[in-house]
Write a sequence for this structure.
């Protein structure tokens, strides 16, 4: 083992990460893998004993998945372990789905806050020997626990929202697909270009045929073109591995801007989320899990807009816009996140771009109204669930 790799191993023995950025060794983790097994062994010893399920989510599959993701997002490590254990015993879900879902959660909600966690999850997905050695249950709980403890950065996702939906980028969305690879790479790597335009150029290199942009036509690109840009930006091999592996098995495109966010977040600090909304639990499920992607969340939206005139007004009496406002107020929040130059502006632009795309005339006024009435929403969620 190289001296660099030995030093690297010594720096990542903690289950949670308290310092950022972490220096990454210049290795391809798919080629040099001898560091993973001792690391997993150490993490397994540091983590709590695997949780034994006392219930399953058979009748609440989507609510269980939402609870798992929101628990990781908000640093609730124990609930994250409970939910992945319950989902593991759900007959409608297999371990392949759980690993694919965890990889998406890691890219979307943790991102560059824990590159090592992202790398290890991608490696475990493709290494049945480790899954057999330690057991799927134990590893899924372990990595869920680690992600929950890690600092979070959702800005690879938020940046994607900006360039997909912001009205100011309509012209770029029209002409970028016609640009040749070299021109898109030049735009993507130019630090004088606004970051949302650089992100759009990266997405065009990647293509929209699989990772779709609702405001653009479908056209082909390739992960190889995307990685060419990241090679020129000197993105570490470990993160390029996550970007390459993360391009498969998902349609959202969470991998596309990870390298760009890595570059601009080198001077980041870790801070607690300001104004974190915590409404408690409904049975085993966090209230925040009742979002528009769950049956119970949709019903709650429908009930709320009928019961409250202010809510009805801001969502134009429609469930879909209300669900989007709720996500922008509550669902996107994390417990600890990276703060760096431009990070808060990316989030604010994403709020505005997405809600205007959903025909909300004044996004921030709508968010303020919904935020002021979250206690009412919690009561409605309990009523819908039957508590």
């Amino acid at each position: 083992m190289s001296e660099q790799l030995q030093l690297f191993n010594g720096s990542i023995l903690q289950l949670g990460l308290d310092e950022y950025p972490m220096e990454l060794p210049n290795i391809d983790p798919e080629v040099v893998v001898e560091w993973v097994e001792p690391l997993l062994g150490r993490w397994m010893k540091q983590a709590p004993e695997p949780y034994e399920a006392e219930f399953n989510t058979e009748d609440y599959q989507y609510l269980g998945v939402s609870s798992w993701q929101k628990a990781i997002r908000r640093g609730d490590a124990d609930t994250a372990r409970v939910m992945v254990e319950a989902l593991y015993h759900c007959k409608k879900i297999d371990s392949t789905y759980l690993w694919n879902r965890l990889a998406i959660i890691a890219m979307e909600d943790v991102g560059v806050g824990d590159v090592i966690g992202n790398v290890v999850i991608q490696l475990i997905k493709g290494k049945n020997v480790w899954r057999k050695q330690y057991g799927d249950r134990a590893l899924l709980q372990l990595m869920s626990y680690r992600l929950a403890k890690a600092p979070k950065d959702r800005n690879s996702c938020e940046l994607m929202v900006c360039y997909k939906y912001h009205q100011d980028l309509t012209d770029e969305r029209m002409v970028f697909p016609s640009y040749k690879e070299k021109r898109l790479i030049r735009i993507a790597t130019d630090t004088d270009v606004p970051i949302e335009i650089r992100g759009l150029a990266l997405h065009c290199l990647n293509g929209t045929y699989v990772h779709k942009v609702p405001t653009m036509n479908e056209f082909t690109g390739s992960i190889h073109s995307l990685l060419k840009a990241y090679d020129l930006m000197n993105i570490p091999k470990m993160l390029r591995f996550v970007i390459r592996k993360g391009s498969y098995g998902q349609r959202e495109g969470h991998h596309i801007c990870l390298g760009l966010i890595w570059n601009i977040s080198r001077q980041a600090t870790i801070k607690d989320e300001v104004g974190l909304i915590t409404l408690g639990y409904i049975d085993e499920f966090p209230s925040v899990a009742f979002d528009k992607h769950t049956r119970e969340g949709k019903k709650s939206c429908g009930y709320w807009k009928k019961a409250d005139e202010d809510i009805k007004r801001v969502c134009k009496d429609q469930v879909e816009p209300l669900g989007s406002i709720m996500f922008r107020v509550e669902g996107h929040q994390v417990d600890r996140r990276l703060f760096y130059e431009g990070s808060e502006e990316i989030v604010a632009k994403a709020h505005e771009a997405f809600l205007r795309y959903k025909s909300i005339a004044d996004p921030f006024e709508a968010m303020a109204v919904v935020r002021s009435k979250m206690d009412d929403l919690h009561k409605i969620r309990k009523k819908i669930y039957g508590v």
Observations:
- Residues 155-264 form one domain.
- Residues 95-110 form the longest helix (16 residues).
- The chain has a mean pLDDT of 91.
